[in-house]
Amino acid sequence: MLSVLKKNLITVSLSVLIALVIISVGMALYSRKVMIEYTIIKKQTEEVRLRWNDIFEVTLRSIDMGLRGYALTKNPQMLDPYKTAMTRNVTNIRKIDSLLVVQKLDSVRAMFIPFRAKLNEYIDYSNQMKEHVDTDSTLTAFVDMLNKDKGFDLYQVYRPIHQKIVKHQDALMAHAQAEYETTQNTNVVIQLILLIFSLPTLILVIARLRYDARDRKNLLQEFEQNNRRYMFNPGTDPSDNPQTIIASSINNLKHASAFIKDISSGNYAATWKGLTSENASLNQENLVGDLIKMRDQMKHVKQEDEKRLWTTEGLAKFSDVARTNQDNIERLSNEVVRFLSKYLHAQQASLFVLHDDDQEDSHLELMACYAFDKKKHIQKRIDLGSGLVGQAYKEGTTTVLTTLPPGYISITSGLGDATPNCLIIVPMKYNDQVEAIFELASFKKFEQYEIEFLEKVGEVIASAIYSTKINERTTKLLKESREQAEMLKSQEEELRQNMEELQATQENMRRRESEG
User: Fold this and answer.
1) Could you report the per-residue pLDDT of 151-191, keeping only the tens digit for each?
2) What are phi and psi of 75, to 5 degrees?
3) What is the DSSP letter of 328?
4) Has residue 454 got a pLDDT over 80?
5) Is residue 83 classed as helix, strand or coil in its secondary structure?
6) 367: how many CB neighbours lie within 10 A of its CB?
7) DSSP 347
8) Residue/partner pairs of 7-11 with CB below 8 Å, 24 or more apart
């Protein structure tokens, strides 16, 4: 027990000191409360006495003097003290009654209620005297009422209540004064105990604080080293200032929190404040290095997801274009070229479709083009194996050029002509047979995922073109068959008419022979 107490001596001492401080503060607050209550009681007792004396010493005398002066002079101004006293009387009665309620002086209030009734009777009596003065010029009735001395009768009721009120107010004042002095004395004693106990405690605490300061300094230095090793190393000289070390650690935590929030919200351009090319090598294996790697990995994953989503949406939209225009190869070609140019943000595009109806004259024909200025309406034929497009057909592989042959193609705008920076030529195959060649020119270089998208789209286009060719050939054969059937029908009708004419001729000949 003694060892535990020794080990926690400062804690125990400070706890006792804090308890004494709390008690001292509590007593100070209680003393303040008692002082406030004392002040309130003192104010209330003084007000009760003042208003009580005012009722008899001022109010009643003002009523009597006002009536006497008015009766002698008939001057209405002599009634001013009378009127003022009436108003003050109402205020005094109401205030005394409320103060007696607040002070819980029920016994005094019980005596005050009949006095108030007597006082009201006296006021009514005074009002009657004023009426006699107003109506009786001889003042006989006024003098008779004045000689009855109703004020003395009221004084007989007033005196015992006055004594009781004074006694109660003195008792309240004395009790409040005693309680206030007791709290002040108790507070002084607690302050002395606090002073006696605080001096050795403060000496002990100061000694312990110095000892702890050395340990804290060593701990902060170790903390600074670990902060640089595991969190972030700015590459500067370590600091011995505790505030700087703690502020550096807090800033690192804030930066880590902000960095994680940024990349969590999709801001993969976020950077670590303070990370430079000079200290980057020092932060490969700490938290900063791990966060940078995580950001780069999440950025890569997001880019791959965006590419996949872009490809998926493009294939879905393109499938709708191909499906809705499959009945006409020219319209299909125009819609394909327009869609792919806009979807890949290219400046020019063209689609060459294979014509192999005549095996001896197989060639590629320009079926549609986009943004070729005036040349976009010109028919263009390319022999198989001729030029870049014809060579792409022969090889059957995608060709990507970032350096174009001089004069091969140019992009026209309001500012003039310019050579594109990238050209891609994609053979579009169906069942390993090239059905068309798609050529796309742009000022930007095509990404690998865009090239793969075009190759996937090429399969759909080739299938649609092949199906369209079959449909057109079938339509053509059906039309030819229909025309041949109509021709045979016409020939049969002509033969029938000839037979009928021949039969008619034979009939005429037989008829003539029989008649001859």
Assistant:
1) 776 777 777 777 777 777 777 777 777 777 788 788 778 77
2) -90, 120
3) -
4) yes
5) helix
6) 22
7) S
8) 9/204, 10/204, 10/205, 10/208
Question: Which residue has 């919200």 as its token pair?
Answer: 265
Using alpha carbons, select from 93, 150, 84 the residue that is nearest to residue 116. Answer: 93
Measured CA to CA in angstroms, residue 433 lies from 137, 283, 348, 362 at distances of 143, 55, 25, 14
Say what the pLDDT of residue 410 is.
64
Task: Count CB-CB contacts under 10 A for residue 418.
Answer: 12
130-146 pLDDT per residue, tens: 787 778 777 777 777 77
- Residue ranges in 265-355 assigned as alpha helix (H): 287-324, 329-343
Give SS3 for 284.
Answer: coil
Helix axis angle for 9-53 and 150-226, nearest 10°, is 160
Domain boundaries, the chain: 2-202, 308-478
Q: Which long-range contacts (CB under 8 A, 24 or more apart) does 12-15 make?
A: 13/200, 13/201, 13/204, 13/205, 14/201, 14/205
- Report how far residue 426's alpha carbon sits from residue 437's, in angstroms, rounded to the nearest whole number: 6
For residue 277, what are its two tokens? 């090319």
What average pLDDT score do residues 9-32 get?
72
Question: What is this structure's pTM?
Answer: 0.48
Fold of 2-202: Four Helix Bundle (Hemerythrin (Met), subunit A) (1.20.120)
Cα distance between residue 287 and residue 293, in whole Å: 10
Angle, vertex CA 420, rays to CA 417 and CA 423, nearest 5: 145
The values of phi and psi at residue 329, to 5°, are: -70, -30
**Using CA atoms, how far apart are residues 70 and 78, in angstroms rounded to an integer?**
5
Cα–Cα distances (Å) from 83 to 64, 137, 274, 275, 424, in that order, read 11, 22, 87, 90, 113
Query: Taking a C-beta distance cutoff of 8 angstroms, is the pair 155, 56 a contact?
Result: yes
Q: How far, in Å, are 36, 192, 193, 306 from residue 27 at the CA level?
A: 14, 13, 13, 71
Mention the CATH class of domain 308-478.
Answer: alpha beta
446 in helix, strand or coil? coil
Cα separations in angstroms, 441 against 225, 341, 354, 410: 57, 9, 21, 9
Tokens coding 376: 């976009």
